[in-house]
């Protein structure tokens, strides 16, 4: 049995070392991206922001989309109910945009979508919104209402699309809590490990719907509106379509967006489990890797700790256990530190909050794998989830069932 422990301990140390090397490459990738000259590729773009309910800081989030350093673009906000509490916030922003001098701010409007029947409400909102874009729009940009982009976000996200052969450009999220709690910081640490899965390796990149852009001609050629029918995850569907077409997905560090909100531990578990349930249906191999990887991580570290505590002699097993605990800690903490420093480069407006995350990002990596394991097992047990007040069941990547909704 001890040789089984040695075997898996060696695997964990090797994987931790590779992850650390990945952290170095991640930081260098961010530095290289920031060193590139500012892009002059700025065709007319349409930003589509589906909304439902009152996100924390919704007004600040939505206002940020109208403050982009970009010559010509429009913003379409879309909801599924004119009585949605987000409508008053959106109307205030749209009205403010309309009262300013022509050319000083982009055009903004609100669209009401139909109630979803066989897909996620967010997806139904997107499918409706693309029917209302300006004729001159050449770029479709999709964003989440809980994202707060920086002023150069749009220009940076659109830049890779100057190459007609690029399928999509994407950013990702970074969670920042106004009032840090264990739940909020654990969610940020959990999410951070996915953030660093994106990078220079185009083959492994994926789209994130909260900060994603495509050329309009590519969107139409891939028939994305049709392919969104029946799905729950807009970004996984885009990822599958783009990769099936043999087109690259470019990750743009400057398109990383902050999600500024607090959450409880219960909300963290709900959010992370929902993400893993979606992953199980839309990217089953990735879910399997998560299940196996987190099982090995937790089992090896617990076994190593027990050997060190319970062993009465300084035999080989104790030294191997101590070496495993030490090396995994050094490599994992190093990866977290490198990743946080990369994020600080592209989110300087949140420097104080990111500096405060030094301790949590460099320690909660130890707990996040346990949460990942729980999420993976929960995804195995059930395909049902509640997302923004709607209870869904994921039958397949192209079949979503709405069980109940809070506005029925």
What's this model, at a glance?
By secondary structure, the protein is an alpha/beta fold.
Question: How would you sum up this structure, described in words?
Answer:
The chain is an alpha/beta fold and 408 residues long. 50% of the residues lie in helices and 15% in strands. Strand 11 (390-396) and strand 12 (399-405) form a beta hairpin. The protein contains 15 helices and 12 strands. It folds into 2 domains: 2-25 and 288-389, no CATH class; 40-280, Spore Coat Polysaccharide Biosynthesis Protein SpsA, Chain A.
Write the element-wise H/E pattern from the N-terminal end onward. HEHEHEHEHEEHEHHHEEHHHHHHEEE
CATH structural fold name of the largest domain: Spore Coat Polysaccharide Biosynthesis Protein SpsA, Chain A
pLDDT below 50 for ≥5 consecutive residues: which ranges? none
- Radius of gyration, CA atoms, in whole angstroms: 22 Å
Strand tally is: 12
What's the total helix number?
15
Q: Count structural domains.
A: 2
At the fourth CATH level, what is the homologous superfamily of the largest domain? Spore Coat Polysaccharide Biosynthesis Protein SpsA, Chain A
Class of secondary structure makeup: alpha/beta
Mean pLDDT across all residues, rounded? 93
Largest sheet: 7 strands, mixed
State the end-to-end distance: 56 Å
CATH class of the largest domain: Alpha Beta
- Report the sheet-strand fraction: 5-15%
